[in-house]
Amino acid sequence: MEKIVNDLSHHIRLNKGFFIWMGFLVLAFLACLYAYTRQLQYGLGVAGVRDYISWGLYISNFVFFVASSLIGMLISAVLGLIGFKWVHPITRIAETIAVAFAAVAGLVIVMDMGRPERLAYVFMYARFQSPILWDVTVITTYFVISLLLLFLPMIPDMAVLYKRFSKLPSWLKPVYKVLSLNWTDHPEQNRIIHRSVYILLILIIPAALSIHTVTSWLFALTVRPGWDSTIFGPYFVSGAFVAGSAAVIIAMYFFRRNYKLQDYLTDMHFNNMGKVLVLVAFVYLYFNINEYLVPGYKLKRADALHLHELMAGNFAVMFWLVQVGGLLIPIILLLFRRMRRPMPLTVISVAVVIGAWFKRYLIVVPTMAHPFLPVQHVPENFKVYTPTLIEIAITLLSFILVLIIITLISKFFPVIPVVETAKDKGLDPLKSIES
Amino acid sequence: MKRLFCLILLLASATWRLEAQNPGWPVPDDQKGKICLVKFTPDMVKQGEAIYMKNCQSCHGIPTKKNFAAIVPSPGDLSESKVGSQKDGELFYRITTGKVPMPEFRNILTEDERWSVISFVRTYHKGYKQPDPEKLAGAAGKRIRLSMAYDTVKKKIMVKAVELSKDGPQPAKGAEVVIFIQRYFGNMQLADPKPTSEYGYAGFDWPQDLPGDKRGNVIVTARVNDPTGSMQEALVKDTLTIGVPTDKPSLTDTRAMWSTRDKAPVWVILTYTLAVLVVWYFIIYIILAVLDIRKIKQV
Questions:
Q1: B264-281: per-residue pLDDT in tens?
Q2: Which are the contacts of B27, defined by CB distance < 8 A and separation ≥ 6?
Q3: Is 50 exceeded by the pLDDT of residue B233?
Q4: B222 touches B179 (CB < 8 A)
Q5: Cα four-point dihedral sign A78, A80, A85, A88
């Protein structure tokens, strides 16, 4: 028991590496924040978005963030409720990623607003018929459920650490004391936690499916080529699992190395996550084939233009890199056991995540570039969308924010559930508190 | 060599002058001299400002603010000197005929309204002096009075033009009459312009399937808009009960997906509210239960 507590908690301290990493993040954050102040001052015109292509990097990035946050549901709820024990050490990593991405996804939308001080209008003048209201609602709900799913299983951990982990930094002690809610491992307390987590795990499945389905409806409820599709919901959800699984694998790799968790995040976990990734990638590939083959076979005029632009036109290089490099090759490689070892799997996951990000760009921008009515009497920069430096910096800002949130949560709380790990190994954490 | 240089210089200056004088939108010479037949008054400027804000401001912006729309070709700010240096007739012609992407206002604004817009824009042009309408009083053209009635037998709208001359009213022959029907946005021209007969009549076939309001009312405008200026503008506007009575509820009258929030379909409101209530009931229930953990002491 002592070893488990120590192994899973020894990283909870302020060390040089943390200061360097956080210092870097904060500096980068401030630099990018300056870009945002420029946008506040001069308006959205500082970004490359114009009348016709009014959704650019920000919205693509938003879709990517919502997608990545979905992994919390897949790991904790779907795999957890089925009864896979191997996911236990990964659940908290998945929930951390879910919380960070879901929290920042909302901010990304604010970044895309020309008048962010009017944010309250979204609620004051909300229409029940608008998918935008549904989106705001489900993202808020999903964020709260994910936060609870991150926090509830951590309550016993914090109680154990508060009492048993001598090296817990003194400034963190009051935080742990308050957050552990007088946990004494009383059966009634355990009952409450178990029941609550169980309800949440069931609740998060429809919530997560709605959040990304509704996000896909922001596009699919229009008649525009490339968006006018009935399978956009499952297409987005399966794509989300691909991005999220890859993100979790990358996080697992870094936590395993930096926090020395080799005994807890073993090759078996990576192997299994690799299998999960290849499974969801296959599902996603299936939806991709549907999404391009069906309109491609019929070739309605607008669809033909759109598909040509994607596959042979201005977006062709990005399109084929994403489809082949970010989906097809990873699937083939991951079929081999050797490729599912930590190092190669992480490299493949990085390619998948980058592909997933550009995939969102390919969903959002090309369609906007081809409205049904001809684009005329406008300056050249209305016709072609080029992200500006400020826009890129603001997009980076959101990524930095996600990294800061993940860093803070993972640095000051155990990354792997302590009590659950002990119980899985047949140890009784109860005794450790009583003593 | 010298001659070549001179030639180039000449050509260059010629092109430059062409560029300066003719920004790709020529105005016929006979239209340039057109002027407003009344003195601009503060009331007219005020009316012009209101019309400007409704019809022109979205592209041209507010004069002197340079906040015109970023479209090609640029609409520009109307307070600029390149507008100020144009004659009233040129401005009038451009407003009247339009040129893509600028709409033509011939059927949207009456002549008086177009002149009032010019009177408003002119307040931004320093040194502008309105050409004296008094001097043109004699050459203002004949005064015409129009009247209009529906001939139920011939199914035609008959427009009668009467010239008000010194010797009393008499039929006006050869007056170009145009007919417009008021629709949701602006006026729809019914047929090609027609000259009046020697008895002063012009007849227009009335389409039997044209929708009117609930009672079949249609607002019809007949106008004499003589391009040569030999006749003054004359206009008659009347509500005639000759359209097909149409009582379609407006698309936004009933509850619908595209309507305002207050007119959302009931099932959408119910589904949304119910889903939110159920999910948040559980979330709040769990939060309260978890807070209870604090109260449970070890036995």
A1: 999 999 999 999 999 999
A2: B89, B90, B93, B94
A3: yes
A4: yes
A5: positive
| ipTM of the complex in this document | 0.90
Determine if the pTM surpasses 0.90.
Answer: no
End-to-end, the C-alpha distance of chain A in Å comes to 12
Residues of B in contact with A133 (CB under 8 A): 272
Q: Which two tokens stand for residue B16?
A: 């430059």
Count CB atoms within 10 A of the CB of residue B43: 10
Per CATH, the number for B25-133 is: 1.10.760.10
- Residues in chain B with CB shorter than 8 Å from the CB of A141 are 276, 279-280, 283
SS (H, E, C) A253-303: HHHHHHCCCCCCCCHHHHHHHHHHHHHHHHHHHHHHHHHHHHHHHHCCHHH
Residues on chain A touching B259 (C-beta within 8 angstroms) = 129
CATH number of B140-241: 2.60.40.1940
pLDDT per residue over A157-188, tens digit each? 999 888 888 888 889 999 999 999 988 888 89
Per the structure block, which two tokens stand in for A67? 């997608």
Best to test chain A binding among B293, B294, B297 (most A CBs inside 10 Å)? B293
Domains of chain A and any CATH numbers: 2-426 (1.20.1630.10)
Report which secondary-structure segment, H or E, holds A157.
helix A154-164
* Tens-place pLDDT, residues A64-81: 999 999 998 999 899 988
**Residue A29, min C-alpha distance to chain B (Å):** 33
Whether A137 and B265 lie within 8 Å, measured CB to CB:
no
Distances (CA, A) of B94 to B35, B40, B69, B129: 13, 19, 18, 20
Rounded Cα–Cα distance for residues A247 and A334 (Å): 16
